[in-house]
Amino acid sequence: MSHKSTDLVHHPYVPPAGFLAPQPGVFKASTVIFANVAALRARDWRYKDGYTYGLHGTPTTFQLEERIATLEGGRHCVLVPSGLAAIANVDMALLAAGDEVLIPDNAYGPNKALAEGELKRWGISHQLYDAMNPDDLRARIGPKTRLVWLEAPGSVTMEFPPLARLAAVARERGVTTALDNTWGAGLAFDGFASGADVVVQALTKYPSGGGDVLMGSVVTRDDALHLKLKLAHMRLGFGVGANDAETVLRSLPSIELRYRAHDRAARALAGWLRQRPEIAHLLHPAFEGSPGHANWKALCTGGDAGGEGLAAGLFSVVFDERYASAQVDAFCDALRLFRLGYSWGGPVSLVVPYDIATMRDARLATWPNKGVLVRFSVGLEAVEDLRADLEQALGALSGAR
Ligand SMILES: *Cc1c(COP(=O)(O)O)cnc(C)c1O
């Protein structure tokens, strides 16, 4: 070929094989090239024995899928563009018009919003159930129920459910369960051993660890269930970018170290805050008196977790009723190291105030619905500096009357 433009597209140089480095390579593709027509016709996008199209997998995404499956203790994984997309992938793969899905009352908010929006529009109904009460779940399972969502602990309000008992109730009735395991990150407890059929995670949180990537995973042990999820994934076009996958691959080796560090720091700060007169309730499953503490203890201590157990770097506090929400807002604004922002799992400590009344279905709420709730995600700053930050901001709380 004599034209440079053609030579630059079809260059003859092939680098030597056998390159080995600690970090997997980044393979970027929409198009995947086949050696011949027979190969093009023979290739099956459903399996990891070859490549068909970037959306269905590259060496980079296959490697990340296998590592996330290992993290969760599962066999198959599909990657999706966010944690919420993982929830959507499960709903769309397993539900049809006329079906019903049951969601914990204290679930991650957008899971409920998806049910109230698109699922309802498509003729799929839902009910919220009390995640702390397996009898409530049992009573709500009906002939239309096809899927039960599980989450531990509840989002923001942090009640730790009797997970295995909930999963067993669904199993008794032959209903598939899907666990949102973002908090546990595959480290604090084993979602499959707890009875879940599908385990999803927002890789956006601890697996990414940087606050800079959005991604989700859907993991299964069952081949047929995986194929259903993979089929919906293919039809929906829920692929992930190679650079994002590479970022998560780079963060994964340190996830357990980071998770334990976030956990230790959060427990130190939660223990300190709990003693303060401004705080009415601490919501952290590893603390006695927090809703579902015994369930956390049963699931997340012992084995690799040790006697101290494992918990994410996440907790909420409810301020004493004497503080109006404007005062709690002033506390949040006064924080300097804790920054205001959603999500968690990265190096920066974060804080968000929430209105408790909107967090739980009033009919199911079992604990005081008074006082303003603030959720903390503890990052990787020095604990002493974070404690000093909380202390100075508590000063602003009483000042802002
Ligand atoms: C953050 C989060 C999600 C959603 O993850 P995104 O990547 O932000 O869509 C889902 N479930 C839980 C429990 C989460 O904390």
Automatic annotation (TrEMBL):
<dbReference type="GO" id="GO:0016740">
    <property type="term" value="F:transferase activity"/>
</dbReference>
<keyword id="KW-0663">Pyridoxal phosphate</keyword>
<keyword id="KW-0456">Lyase</keyword>
<dbReference type="InterPro" id="IPR000277">
    <property type="entry name" value="Cys/Met-Metab_PyrdxlP-dep_enz"/>
</dbReference>
<keyword id="KW-0808">Transferase</keyword>
<comment type="similarity">
    <text>Belongs to the trans-sulfuration enzymes family.</text>
</comment>
<dbReference type="InterPro" id="IPR006233">
    <property type="entry name" value="Cys_b_lyase_bac"/>
</dbReference>
<protein>
    <submittedName>
        <fullName>PLP-dependent transferase</fullName>
    </submittedName>
</protein>
<dbReference type="InterPro" id="IPR015422">
    <property type="entry name" value="PyrdxlP-dep_Trfase_small"/>
</dbReference>
<dbReference type="InterPro" id="IPR015421">
    <property type="entry name" value="PyrdxlP-dep_Trfase_major"/>
</dbReference>
<dbReference type="InterPro" id="IPR015424">
    <property type="entry name" value="PyrdxlP-dep_Trfase"/>
</dbReference>
<dbReference type="Pfam" id="PF01053">
    <property type="entry name" value="Cys_Met_Meta_PP"/>
</dbReference>
